[in-house]
Amino acid sequence: MAPSPVRGPAPRATDHPDSAALTVPAQLRRALRGLWWTAALLTAAAYGLRLAVRLWLEPAAVALPERPALSATLAATLLSAGAPLGLYAARVRRHRRPPRTFLLTRVRRPGVPGRVPALAAAPSPWLGVYPIGLGALVAGFVPLTDAADGSRGVGAPGRWFTLVAAGVALAGAGWAARRRPRLTLTPGGLVLRAALPGRTGTVVPWTALEAVPTAAPTGARHLELPLRRTPAGAAPATAPLRASLTWLWIDPAFLAQTIDHYAQHAADRTAIGHTGAARPGAPPRPRRPDHPRPPRRSATAAPWSTGAPTPRESR
Predict the structure, then answer these.
(1) Buried b (16+ CB within 10 A) or exposed e, 12-51
(2) How many Cα neighbours within 13 Å face the side chain of 56?
(3) 43-77 pLDDT, tens per residue?
(4) Most buried of the four, 51, 105, 244, 285, by CB within 10 Å?
(5) Sheet containing 112-120, strands listed edge to edge, beginning at the edge strand earlier in sequence
């Protein structure tokens, strides 16, 4: 049996862990979890830096001449958002190659009770730049109180504003996570969904697909899917259906190869979403040769013993 469909070719031993393409679903999920936590921490940092500029730098800049004060305030404001964004961009760019694997998930299918196993393309980690920039922007609207000595502070209105803004940000992040663009492979076909349409999106049965060109460039923003017939919920098939890859994190050539494999091999579709399915185009794994196991060491042997015969035993 061939390897898993969600598993790409293994990285070379000389590759950096972040520069090599992610090829295992668990590895991809860990990478995404680390990136989302990084985005959350940098969002809080951007909020705190922008608030610190308003609390301490702006009152101190009043004593400076107008032009230096304006320059210092503007530079600090830009730095409060630019530094976290730059750090996050550097963190994302450590993954130089897009993943060659999917996320294992479960989705609902019309007419099928419960959820069925499926393969989903990972969301782009560049979505994390939006909450970071939003954190710096929201901090500029926090109500501050001015003291008689010229200092500033965050009073009760500012604290309530922060709590409400945090709640709205969490709700918006949850909504965006549910409404984000998706590309899912199910045993019944592809499910394509843009950012704002309904929850089901466009369902493309495998029988509606022609042979998919597998020579997709690495930086492709769209994947053209030739159609035999028009799928339900899509416009008449006067041209190939274009699947947007802008906000997805997956190697386009690997995705095209996987879609083409399941479009041409109906027997493998029932195994979609299971780790034991056949990966398209993968040769069967070579079987390990059966070597006899070495004999176990005696429980009474000395821990420093190497198993070599002693001079007395070799006589």
Answers:
(1) eeeeeeeebbbbbbebbeebbeebbebbbebbebbbebbb
(2) 6
(3) 999 999 999 998 888 888 877 888 888 998 899 99
(4) 51
(5) 103-109, 112-120, 182-186, 189-193, 202-205
